[in-house]
Amino acid sequence: MRLVRIFIVALLFASTSLAQAQSKRIVIAASVVLDGKGQVLRNTRIVIQGSKIVAIDPKAEPVDYDLRGLTVLPGWIDSHVHLTWSFGPDGRNAGAGGTTQEAALGAASNAWVTLMAGFTTVQSLGSPQDIPLRDAIAKGQLPGPRILTAAQPLMGRGAETGTPEEIRAFVRAQKAAGADVIKIFAANSPRRPEPTLSQEQLNAACDEARKLGLRTLVHAYKDAVRLATNAGCTQIEHGPLASDADLKLMAQKGTWLDAQAGLVMENYLLNKDKFLGTPGFPEEAFPLIKEIIPIYHEFMKRALKIPGLKLVFGSDALAGSHGRNAEEFIDRVRDVGVEPMAAMVSANSLAAEAMGLSDQIGSIAPGLQADIIALDGDPLKDITAVRRVVFVMKGGVVYKNSAR
After folding, report:
1. What does the pLDDT read at residue 219?
2. Which end of the chain, N or C, is surrounded by fewer C-beta atoms within 10 Å?
3. For the residues 134-149, what does the mean pLDDT come to?
4. Which pairing describes strands 256-258 and 397-401: parallel, antiparallel, or unpaired?
């Protein structure tokens, strides 16, 4: 019943909010603006017309939203989530979701709480059910973040599985199904990091995607990181156990890195009772999960030392962590030593650039989408301010305003 209530409220909210005149001029007053590219603007106003920012003008009048005293910044971009992953009717992990009404309601709820947490764009990786959710949000039928999805991922099961031409056909099928990106599993986990796809197979997958104008995001650890980089794949997901030489190769080739500092593993431990006994989560897995967290920390610390390596923000949010994506910022700053401004930029202009969307989102600048959030507090001084999102606008529509 809770999911039904959330769905109904979200649906009504979408209907009323998107009925607002999209040509309306809106002025936001702000005392502190993080522009998404590492600069701080002070005592200015943001002018919005329809869905886009049209000017930064300190003298613009009249003011529609007074966000002075807060920290204003572009809506965050999460490069790695799983919106269809929910806890089922029995309260236990239901995995990547299905086509039941309960699963659809769960995905809609996950999208809503993610938007309310300040994430206006996400990359949801690994379920065909992302596609109808993406399309419903894009049409204004549901409120939620802008979604890019991989549809069905390419699962590596060993170098003998799938000829290069079969892999190319798989990539073409995902493009035809509506995928925005191609997700590839080239390894299993830090405990089983051996490559599950050969160099030839990865070459075929990433080359075919590139010919189709699609990016490739590769789930990889250790040696699989080097294989995917040499294949010209776009981005590495996770990456622990890769060597410094591998990371330098990524920087040299311009390969993006989407590593995590802890939220995904912490979430498994926090919700152990809901994951325990479901596929992939026997009792013996949880001590190993706890041991993996420092491995993730050590890897990100090394990655930060590699000149030119481009590290974006991705939380890997799934059942139990939707709407808590921003905890990943806290892990990065507190446990790894990422500079707060760098953490913000990694989820703004840097993530937009990685997605090929820097001309649309990721910064507060004229011509870009009016994706704007406000925090009660200054994340540059206290990173826990990311938990206090009090204003959310996406595409010129205000979805949350508890600032006053």
Report:
1. 98
2. N
3. 97
4. unpaired
Domain containing 239: what range? 76-354
Residues 257-267 pLDDT 10s: 999 999 999 99
CA distance 396 to 341: 25
Q: Are residues 222 and 111 in the same domain?
A: yes
- From 334, 354, 374, give the residue that closes a domain: 354
**Residue 368 maps to which CATH number?**
2.30.40.10
Question: Chain centroid to CA 34: how far?
Answer: 19
Residues 376 and 250 in one domain: no
Banded model confidence at residue 9, pLDDT cuts 50, 70, 90: low
Same-domain status, 164 and 200? yes
Counted residue by residue, the chain has a size of 404
The partner residues of 66 in beta bridges, in order of sequence, read 29
Neighbours of 376 (CB within 10 A): 15
> What mean pLDDT do residues 160-171 have?
89
Neighbours of 112 (CB within 10 A): 25
Q: If pLDDT is split at 50, 70 and 90, which confidence band does 339 have?
A: very high
Rounded to whole angstroms, the Cα distance separating 308 from 272 reads: 38
Write out pLDDT tens, residues 47-69: 999 999 999 999 999 999 999 99
Asked if 35 and 143 sit in the same domain, the reply is: no
pTM score: 0.94
Is the CB of residue 380 less than 8 Å from the CB of residue 341? yes
Q: How many domains does the chain have?
A: 2
**Same domain, yes or no, for 262 and 136?**
yes
